[in-house]
Amino acid sequence: MPEHTIPRTPSAYDYQLLIKNLLFCPVVDAPDQEIVYRSSFRYTYRELHQRVKRLANALTSLGVRKGDTVAVMDWDSHRYLECFFAVPMLGAVLHTINVRLSPEQILYTIDHAEDDFLLVNSEFLPILEQIRGRMDTVKGFVLLNDEAAPPVTTIPFAGEYENLLDSSSCEYNFADFDENTRATTFYSTGTTGMPKGVYFSHRQLVLHTMGVLGVLGSALGHGRFHRQDVYMPITPMFHVHAWGVPYVATMLGVKQVYPGRYVPDLLLELIEKEKVTFSHCVPTILHMLLKHPHAQRIDLSGWKLIIGGAAMSRTLCIDAMKHGIDVFTGYGMSETCPILTLAHLTPEMLELSPEEQATIRCKTGRSIPLADLRVVDSDMLEQPRDSTSPGEIVVRAPWLTQGYLKDHKASERLWEGGWLHTGDVAVRDELGYIRITDRSKDVIKVAGEWVSSLELEDIIAHHPGVAEVAVIGTTDEKWGERPLALVIPRMDKALTEKDISHHVKEYADKGLVNKQVVLIKVRFVNAIDKTSVGKVSKVALREKYA
Predict the structure, then answer these.
(1) Strands (E), 114-215
(2) pLDDT (tens digit, 9 = 90+) per residue, 187-223?
(3) What's the whole-number mean pLDDT along residues 76-87?
(4) 447-to-456, 506, 542 alpha-carbon distances in Å
(5) In what order do the strands lie in the sheet with 480-489?
(6) Is 60 exceeded by the pLDDT of residue 506?
(7) 8 A C-beta contact, residue 328 and residue 296
(8) Is 149 in contact with 173 (CB distance < 8 Å)?
């Protein structure tokens, strides 16, 4: 039989899924909507469109060409948002540098990505001064400066960002090109060795934007993201495009607020002053905000907040709900662009008690449109949806990275068998809700039985004397491994190791957790190591304590 392909009229427009197309609606339908940077800069979407064109002209005049790589070192800002659009719209690649990496790792990512031009915030000049002599590919530098006076530096800047925009035309015709052109590159923090380069095309970013918009926009009240919202990211723009939500926010034409460097009192001030209604962050940031004195006087009700990057404890969830925050979990990873699931509640679930709701809000959630997500055993057979049968999460979606930059072997491992392997162990219930029980490398094997470090952390976090906790496995001659709880106690509570052990035993005696957890060891610490994006670093903790 003949294939029923759609014939193409020679004169028809060949519509490519390009990032530039995300700008169409807000510029036409919401030209006077605001974009805010801290308390220092405020402008409209109409001006955003003009500034994106000015930036394109400025970069072109500096020598940026299609296929070049333009890197950015900045905190969350309106400048970063402009780079999210202008750089890939030129056909160049945007490299979002993780400024929390060590100088040597930053140098590695710059050289590995073969950056041609570097836009750098004056705060990071000491790092740049330290590594500039060893850069192999960078041809030019642009200064990003929030201060009135220019910084003292030996870096030969081609100009300052605002001055370059002021002297550039606001007219630029962005050409069409292949939607599979690489648009962005960034480097995952990784757990071993140097960071890995992850990259995405225009097509992938546009489809991810549409998928996230579809699931957030179709929610019934709870967790919904719509045009009347005020958006502020509290996840770094250098990390997976701030989870891709700035693209969604821009496409919707909502008011956007960019806080720069994350300072608790400023974040809370912006939430109150700008009436922020939608954000996303890791659990440590939420914990920091809720414990800040200003949180007690600020009305946080109506703030919708996606928590991701690490497991949210029920204790933290309940605390946030007491403040009126509509908090729920999102899941993804650097390689998945990143959002794969969201823990939206059904109308029936919203009738449950806060404690019952917290259990669902802390789950990993249900997969978003176009994400074919499965929980499989070692033979790649899908596990039953019974809430108890664990397996690895594997996924297919049109926005997943095709691999790691210049790392064929790691790319093949990532996509073994034609599915992207997350390395996360999870169970799934009959309603389709995923619950991650651990990373495959973080599960603790005690006397031949698997113990979830995440489950143990959630139990211990329920103790009123615990401020923060992380659990790792330690080698044990008799049991193979034993769980070690690293606990930061609350300053206003007296706490002993026996208190924690007894608390865990109560859960085991009730049959709520594997009885092997009673073998837990407890150690009090002053701090728990985190990665550059705020996740607990189990690798660093194992190196230090195991």
Answers:
(1) 117-121, 140-144, 157-160, 182-188, 196-201
(2) 987 545 688 999 999 999 999 999 999 999 999 889 9
(3) 98
(4) 17, 20, 20
(5) 466-476, 480-489, 521-524
(6) yes
(7) no
(8) no
Q: Please tell me the predicted confidence (pLDDT) of residue 491.
A: 85
Cis peptide before 338 (omega within 30 of 0): yes
* Cα dihedral sign, 75-80-84-87: negative
What's at 192, amino acid-wise?
T
What burial class does residue 385 get, using C-beta atoms within 10 Å of its C-beta: 0-12 exposed, 13-18 middle, 19+ buried?
middle
Please give the Cα distance from 508 to 101 (Å, whole number).
Answer: 40
**Strand, helix or coil for residue 378:** coil
Give mean pLDDT, residues 218-239.
Answer: 95
The residue among 140, 144, 138, 240 whose CA lies nearest residue 183 is 240
pLDDT, mean over the chain: 92
When computed from its CA atoms, the radius of gyration of the chain, rounded to whole angstroms, is: 24
Asked if 486 and 525 touch (Cβ cutoff 8 Å), the reply is yes
Q: What is the pLDDT of residues 303-343, one digit of tens each?
A: 999 999 888 889 899 999 999 999 999 999 999 999 999 99
Render the burial of 12-43: b for 16+ CB within 10 Å, e for the rest: eeeebbbbbbbbeebbeebeebbbbbbeeeee
Amino acid at 523: R
Closest CA relative to residue 333, chosen from 419, 400, 280, 407: 400
* CA-based max dimension of the chain: 78
* Domains in the chain, CATH or no CATH each: 19-199 (3.40.50.12780), 444-545 (3.30.300.30)
Q: How far apart are CA 243 and CA 308, in angstroms?
A: 9
Which strands sit side by side in the sheet containing 41-44, from one edge to the other? 41-44, 34-37, 255-258, 230-231, 278-281, 304-307, 326-332, 339-342, 366-367
Q: How many helices (H) and strands (E) does the chain have?
A: 17, 25
Bigger pLDDT: 517 vs 348: 348
C-alpha to C-alpha distance for 334 and 243, rounded to whole angstroms: 9
Q: Confirm if 285 and 305 have CB atoms less than 8 A apart.
A: no
Of the candidates 134, 94, 133, 131, which has an alpha carbon nearest to the alpha carbon of residue 116?
Answer: 94
Q: DSSP characters for 284-304?
A: HHHHHHHHSGGGGTS--TT-E
Name the amino acid, one letter, at 496: T
Find all residues with CB under 8 Å of 326, minimum gap 6, and list them.
222, 223, 302, 303, 304, 305
pTM for this one?
0.85
Q: How high is the pLDDT of residue 191?
A: 47
CA atoms of 492 and 489, how far apart (whole Å): 9
| Angstrom distance (rounded) from CA 303 to CA 532 | 26
The answer to whether the CB of 343 falls within 8 A of the CB of 329 is yes
